[in-house]
Amino acid sequence: MSTSTDFLLAIEDLTVSFDGFKAVDTLNMYIDKNELRVIIGPNGAGKTTLLDLICGKTKASSGSIKFKNHELTKQAEHEIVRTGVGRKFQTPSIYENLSVYENLEVSYPEGRGVFGSLFFKSTDKVRDTVLQIAEEIQLLDELDTEAAVLSHGQKQWLEIGMLLMQDPELLMLDEPVAGMSAKERDETAELLNRICQNRSVIVIEHDMEFVKKIARKVTVLHQGKILAEGAMDNVQNDEKVIEVYLGH
Ligand SMILES: Nc1ncnc2c1ncn2[C@@H]1O[C@H](COP(=O)(O)OP(=O)(O)OP(=O)(O)O)[C@@H](O)[C@H]1O
């Protein structure tokens, strides 16, 4: 099909139908290396389905998803994770009974899997990485705290930290600030602005105040297709976008 590109992620003619209903419809989208892209759009636009397709949770009906020029649509979820795609779902999947430190430690790639955990040694490298990520997600003072007692926002950051332990080149976050306090939202914006400096990040978000704090390029999805794409200011003033989404 298409030739090699310099894009980290190149999505072309991507379609998925559920019983004839096209949740994502001949979509083309290109993400640069170290780009932070925000995806907005009304309920049912296909945003979550798009992330499901990229991470392999849902199989495409047709079209192509190339990550570093490798086709992802034929790969299994765990293979896609290994190639460097991390995905955070809306509800945090942290280990409630483990400490912050342990949650990060078990997420280190070599520590994963049954055999990995059996032979896993907590080396200096793992410890250094845990400390560095804990600082990045502002949980350095909570290393020994059981994850269960963290605030909602801290749990979300911990899960982002667990993904960062795998050093993904593409990180995808679905509504990361849902349910957070205003202060936690601001801190999450700062966190995302920091972590996109050396990786690409795709964020789905409905909270426009938050989107304004992080947005560079924004893609507006509607009925499985791109309605508008560009700088936040342009998208915000686009009449079609106001009509189907922002005006509501
Ligand atoms: N596995 C599935 N089977 C059938 N229909 C599905 C499936 N997954 C998603 N859909 C449908 O596809 C459409 C797009 O859903 P999706 O969750 O991607 O939208 P969204 O843009 O993420 O919306 P929201 O903002 O509400 O999260 C919806 O109409 C949904 O009902």
TrEMBL record:
Database matches in CDD domains: ABC_Mj1267_LivG_branched (cd03219)
Q: Where is the ABC transporter domain?
A: 9-248
> Which InterPro entries does the UniProt record give?
AAA+_ATPase, ABC_AA/LPS_Transport, ABC_transporter-like_ATP-bd, ABC_transptr_urea_ATP-bd_UrtD, BCA_ABC_TP_C, P-loop_NTPase
Supply the SMART domains for this chain.
Answer: AAA
**GO MF, one example:** ATP binding
A Pfam family (short name) is BCA_ABC_TP_C
Q: Which UniProt keywords apply?
A: ATP-binding, Nucleotide-binding, Transport
The protein's name is Urea ABC transporter ATP-binding protein UrtD
Q: Which organism is it from?
A: Methylophaga marina
Q: What is the lineage of its organism?
A: Bacteria, Pseudomonadati, Pseudomonadota, Gammaproteobacteria, Thiotrichales
The gene that this protein is the product of is urtD_1
